[in-house]
Amino acid sequence: MGHDPMVWSPSGRGTQELVKGASRGQQQNNGPNMHYEIQSSGALEQKFHARVASTARELVRSNDNILVIALPVNGHKMVMEKLAPEIIKWKLEQNSGNAELTHIIISSHASLGAVFFMQLLREERRKYLEQRPIDTAIDLGEGDYEEVDIGIRITAWGTTAVTARKISENSVNVLTIRKSVDFCTVPSDPNELEAAGELKELSHKRSDLLRDGYQLCTTLFGKRFQYRRGGLLAISLSNLNPQNHLGIVLGNMSRMDPPPPPPPISSCFDQPKPEISSEPWYQGRNITPNIGRLMEALDRERIEIANALDIEVRTIYQHFSWSFHVPMETPITDDDDDPSGPSLASDKGSAVKMRPTTVSEMNQQMHYYAKTDVLGPAVANSRYVLEDVPYGLVLTVILGKLVKRPAVLHESGIRIISAMYGRDFITENNLLEGLGLIDNGERKVDSELLFNLDIWREMAYSGYFKD
Question: Can you give 368-383 as a three-state secondary structure string?
Fold first, then answer.
């Protein structure tokens, strides 16, 4: 505790009820000093108090140069476009070139959002400097726009620190707290291996926290962060939710999309319309062996792409174990077809044969034993589709083509879901569109970016594609 957070909803809807709730601090109707209570339950029982910003300008100028973007990824571009000019103006108005670093955390990162944001920030800085009065005798570090450090660090998380569901406008149920979150910070020097995880003592110096992603994230959210070699390329392949949700959606679409009442048979048909209701269903419980095998095959495609890039990412088994607290191995029983496996000592001293747990089995353990299962989507317009398909799966397909490891199942899944919904999800990613990586019919693809691996490797640490 000891932090003083502020939340901002661009539309205002996300904080409307929060503003109406109980408050502490200065008793005023609005302003940065008003605090509102947020109650969390489940894995984290806690009351928090947060200030509410009414504008992006207020958010940027009322905090300690630390911002966290935590909203569905299909809203990232809009939020980044609102924040970028405010961040640059505030930085350059504070103390010119000597202003403190600004650190932005993206939770969680997808579709090269950090690259889009960094390029947007650099462009806003260029425009600001070009419009600056010519007689302003302040060294703002102008020169080569490509090389100058603009004083901003972006830390990208491969997943969220918690899984949670919003109960009301001022309360949330935390389902699980993840043991491990992959991250990287840009810009960074690939020749200087970050010692994340090896640090014996955290720094309490403000300058160190703003510069170092591991130090900052660990101070704010605890020791759960793991640096992945490969920078943004590794983080882009570290978020397993899109591929996992694809398997879940394909296997459970009829649960997500119950049919509407049928139309009348004829004009004189007078039967009452039948009542149609969707069934509540548990996500993990319905990951059957066949659905589990599909998810494992999707994971193998992702791992092959990572191997071709010479980067290490977590497996689907590590993901479920670390996120939902179930083991990656299980004792062999008489029901198992294959009795072979490593031996482990039991509590009584005798050897127990162990075997890897399948994805389906891990999800059954989540449901019946760990009690970390969650209800699946009850509507077709779920983020599992509208967010994860265009913003999660499409980049994996692009990376597969880049390294000549086609993600056949990923691409097939996108096309099948697109056919189900009657739309083309490949073209619905405005972050990749903004980077010139997809063609939506208006902007053509930058072919050099799609086929030049060296440009991507440099981007993974610089945080932007250089012209």
Answer: HHHCCCCECCCCCCCH
